[in-house]
Design a protein that fits this description.
Elements lengths: L4 E8 L5 H17 L3 E4 L6 H10 L1 E4 L11 E3 L7 H8 L4 E3 L3 H15 L3 E5 L5 H7 L7 E4 L2 H6 L8 E5 L5 H14 L13 H13 L5 E5 L5 H12 L5 E4 L15 E6 L5 H14 L1 E8 L18
Parallel strand pairs: 1-11, 1-12, 2-3, 2-4, 4-5, 6-7, 6-8, 9-10, 9-11
């Protein structure tokens, strides 16, 4: 039987960012250095394939520090943790490695700097997301207020409208965040923003690639986990940019083929915590069903690399 034709617009950049790559290396190097098991507080990154692979190598994933024995190393996830977590680890004399993405750490430092200057912080982020919890946990309770939408800006109650600043989660929709920032600035003209955009380069670049593809694609597949904020944002961005159907899939086996019936142009990207092997898996699955033509769509070139902590590296 003749396969129907399909033009696949393959987004670039896509997949792993520097912070995710660094966090995974930290877990692998910790297992090599200290042997198994090595404990990891929360999923090191939001991707089941990655987490399962590290678990097979000897990582044990837990949600809280009290689930870790004091005599084994523990790693904090790329999303960052409240200050109380390393404080508890030190109290228990635990060996720990902080795999927080440096761009998330930048937001932590920024929030602390604003607080030291006497400013109350408003954080733009998703309630319950580990990055939001970690950032808000850098300061005493009440010093950081959370807003998720433009509507939240109307109701937020601050101590002094003339002495506030804002920070953001690094994995938000660029466009949504711009709207919330505009609402904050309209209500609080004196509000202080970050010196440099908090939304990370990888989130921004992946959204821009999707925007370039969406108007010419009948469907968009986003490889990523359902608990991955940046992956879910890519699905939303595709829909807003003109793609009539977008689907989040963890693996090729998750593709809803019935929804793709009759599709002749498709976009494909991957969230910042999704490995390239899963993208290749989806491409192979498409090639099995379609006469596939792949057209790369590159909107940026990434060459960012973050060093792993010195405790895991050999002395120079």
């Amino acid at each position: 039987m003749t396969k129907p034709p399909l033009t696949l617009y393959l987004a670039a950049p896509r997949g792993f960012c520097a912070g995710v790559d660094r966090a995974i290396k930290i877990v692998e190097m910790a297992i090599q250095k200290w042997g198994a098991p090595v404990y990891v507080r929360h999923e090191i990154v939001h991707n089941k394939f990655v987490v399962d692979g590290l678990r097979d190598k000897g990582a044990v994933f837990v949600e809280e520090l009290d689930e870790c024995p004091a005599d084994r190393p523990v790693i904090f996830s790329a999303h960052g943790v409240p200050k109380s977590v390393p404080a508890e680890a030190e109290h228990r004399n635990m060996v720990y490695v902080d795999a927080t993405c440096p761009l998330v750490s930048k937001v932590h430092i920024e929030a602390q700097r604003h607080a030291d200057a006497g400013l109350q912080i408003i954080m733009i982020g998703h309630r319950g997301h580990p990055e939001t919890i970690g950032t808000m946990g850098q300061l005493p309770e009440g010093d950081v207020l959370l807003v998720e939408t433009e509507a939240d800006v109307t109701d937020v109650v601050v101590r002094d409208p003339a002495r506030i600043a804002y920070v953001t989660q690094t994995t938000l929709s660029v466009d949504d965040t711009a709207g919330i920032v505009a609402a904050l600035q309209a209500r609080f003209p004196a509000i202080v923003g970050p010196h440099k955009e908090d939304i990370c380069y990888a989130t921004t670049n992946r959204q821009e690639a999707v925007k370039a593809i969406a108007p010419r694609a009948q469907a968009m597949l986003v490889v990523g986990a359902p608990n991955s904020s940046n992956s879910k944002r890519l699905v939303e961005v595709a829909a807003r940019a003109g793609c009539s159907y977008s689907q989040l899939v963890q693996r090729a086996t998750d593709i809803d083929w019935r929804a793709l019936d009759g599709v002749r142009t498709m976009g494909l990207t991957a969230g910042a915590s999704a490995p390239e092997t899963l993208v290749s898996e989806v491409v192979d699955a498409l090639a099995d069903r379609f006469d596939l033509t792949v057209e790369p769509v590159e909107t940026a070139v990434e060459n960012v690399e973050f060093k792993v902590p010195r405790v895991l590296r050999q002395p120079a």
